Structure formats: C-alpha cells, structure tokens
Amino acid sequence: MDRRRLVPRTDAVLADPRLVEAGGRLGRQVVKAAVAAAQDRARQGEIGPDDVADAAVAALPTRAASLRPVVNATGVLIHTNLGRAPLSAAAVEAMTAAAGPADVEFDLATGARARRGRNAAEALAAAVPAAADVHVVNNNAAALVLVATALATGREILISRGELVEIGDGFRIPDLLASTGARLREVGTTNRTSARDYADAVGPATGFVLKVHPSNFRIEGFTGAAEVPELTGLGVPVVVDIGSGLLAREPLLPAEPDATTMIGSGADLVTASGDKLLGGPQAGLLLGRADLVERCRRHPLARALRVDKLTLAALEATLRGPVPPVSQALHADPAVLVRRAAALARRLAGVGVDARDVPSTAAVGGGGAPGVRLPSAAVSLPERLAVPLRTGDPPVVGRVEHARLLLDLRTVPPEHDGDVERAVLAAAEVRG
Ligand SMILES: *Cc1c(COP(=O)(O)O)cnc(C)c1O
C-alpha cells in the first residue's frame, strides 16, 4: 500500500492542541515547517503516520528567537562574544515593562510630549554629579562619532600615537573618527607622548584633544602619557574615551579610569560604554560640559544614534537598581568561589565524573582592565566535555587550559551552580 496516502493532512495535524498553542507562542510559519518536516519523515517511513503530530511537537524550537542564553564559565567577566555584560534581574524586568506601549516620550500627568530618555538621563546624571549634562546613544563608538561630527568635522582631532586603538573585530577608533570627516592629527610616539606634543600641535584648526583609554592592551617599559590635567589649558576641549563605563573609582581596578575622576581632573567630555564595567545594556554614555553635550544632542546625527526604549529602561534600572552581575562577579569573595568549586567538584566526582576543584585566574576581558588577574576557582573536567557542554541545554562555555576544561565560577552566578551540575552530568552521560 502507498504509505504516502496514510500521512495525515496538514490541517488535521495543525489542529493538534499542542501545535495550536505553539502557533500562538512561536508563530504559524515555524509550526507549519515542523509539521511539514514530520510529514516528510512519515513519507520516508522513518516514523508512523500516527506519530506525525508528536514528531512535529518534539521538533519545535523552545523560543521564537534562536539566540540562546548561555552559562558563561570562561572566567572572562565581560565576554564580547557572549554579549558583554549580563543584565540584572531589575534591568530585565524594566525592559519587559517597557516592551509594550510606555511613556517613553509622553508626560502622563499633562498628556503632552516629554523629553525622550529623561529618566535614564536623570539616573546617569545622579550617578555622576560632576557632569553638568549627559546624553545616551547607541554605543561608545556612536558617542565618539557624534562628538567628532559635532565638534570637529572639517577640523582636527589631536590624538596620541599610543592611543590609536583597535576596539575589536577589525574596527579601529582612528578609522571611525576619520569617517566623520574630521582629520586626525597624531602627536607623540607609540610609547611616549608629552603635554608639549599636544601643545605644539594645537592651532586654529583644532576641534578637540582626544584621550583614548588603552582598554584592551598594555604597553610596558619606557612609556609616558600626558594626563588630562596637563591638557586642560590648551584652549580646546579635552574629550576622554574611558571605554569601560566606570562612573566612579573602583578600588579593585586602580588603573581603570572613571567618569567622575576624569571630569574632576578637567575633562570637558567623557564617553563610555554601557555594557562593560557599568554592567548595563549596550549604550554609549556622553557626560560633561553642558554646552558641548547640547551641541551633540542637537546635531542631526544624534537622531540616527538614539537608543530605543528597551535600552533606556535597562540603563535606568542598572543605574538605580541592585548591583549588576558584572560588579557582583568582580567583587565575588575568592574564598566563597573556592567553596563553591569544591562542593560542585565533590558532587560530580561522587557520581563518577572526573572532576576536581582547582585555583583559577579570571579576567575583566576586552571590556577593560587588561592585565588585571582576579583570583578565582574552577571545576576542572576532561577536555572532551567541552563540546557536549557547549551544545547542551543550557550551553555552558568554559575554557580549555593544559588539556583540561575549566569551568570558572567567578563568572557564574551562584544560583546557576545547579544548572552547571546538571549540564555536566548530561554532557558526561551520567544519570543525575
Ligand atoms: C570598548 C571600547 C570602545 C567601543 O565601545 P562600544 O560601546 O563597543 O562601541 C571604544 N573605546 C574604548 C576605549 C573601548 O574600550
């Protein structure tokens, strides 16, 4: 008999209550595709005609978007490939609340239009009282483009040869600035630049002096750089790209610049990222002199760089709310990390997994503080578990060192230890 004639019709399968429900959650196209694939399998004889609905249900994705939440056990606090800063629960909740219609540009009391992003801007201004004004754009690169466009198109930006930084993925700050029509005027040398070098280069064509924090590399040896206080008397604005987004001094990262200190030492404008050490959503922060911030905010380009309401909500909650995960990881007590690693390794070893707890060294990552080593603890596993852990559910990403897979707990929130344990058991094919 022709097997194909027994394969149930599409509308009959789609009427299965589980698939109706999934259609509402995931979209009809996704469900139809799963049904078509299951019908194909039945035509091939891989499954029986009565199993088509079950097979379609089993093949459905769990979410409408395929981006998957991952456990970061790399020990790299700000992992660019894993989406940089994980948001706090408060920030996630704020984004969910803002997802529908929200008063993003609307004053509920008067019914009139209100300034977009005022709540996030107020929170940022409150966090950095030294800044006379603030503005938020899409990311730090956008903040730099906006400043360069508003203050230096057709003019010169003075920058040290030691600060011509490649941010990552082939993007370079000098190229970004030049793309605005500003001319870069390099001063000093790779290893040493003095205040005199800047002073000699300042002229009528100077738009501003730019200091860029070398956030992802270090040069050592015979080095020297002019600091902000030495550059404030040149008669042109001093703009400082601090990179990481620290708003105030962080004692654990003494070499990392922060917005408050920079403005206090005379910077006219500071730019920073929202999703590095600040621990918030992708955003670019502009802080400093009111007239300069206003010129940036009023520039037509500002409209193309503005952030959406979800970012505004998450940024405000990050600034006003509980300590975000990046700061928690940075400040985690090493003794507690050692205890967590020991407990996890003991439970895994107890069911036959080749697991042991080992000391580890975590890092801030591309987001800042190069060379800073944070004492940590890890669970050491056979290297062959790396792939099944990465492709498991949830995916767990560790790092391989000396032919062992290390799961560094500094970047794993304590409440995820159970997930890590279950993931390892599944990867090692041990019944939990
Ligand atoms: C990360 C970084 C940037 C780029 O920031 P984005 O927010 O990713 O655009 C620019 N400058 C410095 C110094 C950085 O560290």
From TrEMBL:
Provide the E.C. number(s) assigned to this enzyme: 2.9.1.1
- Which coenzymes or cofactors are required? pyridoxal 5'-phosphate
Q: Name one GO cellular component term.
A: cytoplasm
Q: Point out residues bearing the modification N6-(pyridoxal phosphate)lysine.
A: 276
Which of UniProt's keywords are assigned here? Cytoplasm, Protein biosynthesis, Pyridoxal phosphate, Selenium, Transferase
The question of whether Cytoplasm is a record keyword is answered with yes
Catalytic reactions on record = L-seryl-tRNA(Sec) + selenophosphate + H(+) = L-selenocysteinyl-tRNA(Sec) + phosphate
Q: What class of enzyme is it?
A: transferase
Pathway listed for it is: Aminoacyl-tRNA biosynthesis; selenocysteinyl-tRNA(Sec) biosynthesis; selenocysteinyl-tRNA(Sec) from L-seryl-tRNA(Sec) (bacterial route): step 1/1
Give the L-seryl-tRNA selenium transferase N-terminal domain ranges: 4-43
* GO molecular-function term, one example from the UniProt record: L-seryl-tRNA(Sec) selenium transferase activity
Q: Where in the cell is it found?
A: Cytoplasm
Pfam family of the protein (one): Se-cys_synth_N
Query: Might you name a Gene Ontology BP term for this protein?
Result: selenocysteine incorporation
**InterPro entries assigned:** PyrdxlP-dep_Trfase (IPR015424), PyrdxlP-dep_Trfase_major (IPR015421), SelA-like (IPR018319), SelA_trans (IPR004534), SelA_trans_N_dom (IPR025862)
State its role. Converts seryl-tRNA(Sec) to selenocysteinyl-tRNA(Sec) required for selenoprotein biosynthesis.
Entry similarity comment:
Belongs to the SelA family.
Q: Which NCBIfam families match?
A: selA
Q: What protein name does the entry list?
A: L-seryl-tRNA(Sec) selenium transferase
Naturally occurring in which organism (per UniProt): Nonomuraea longispora
- Taxonomic lineage: Bacteria, Bacillati, Actinomycetota, Actinomycetes, Streptosporangiales
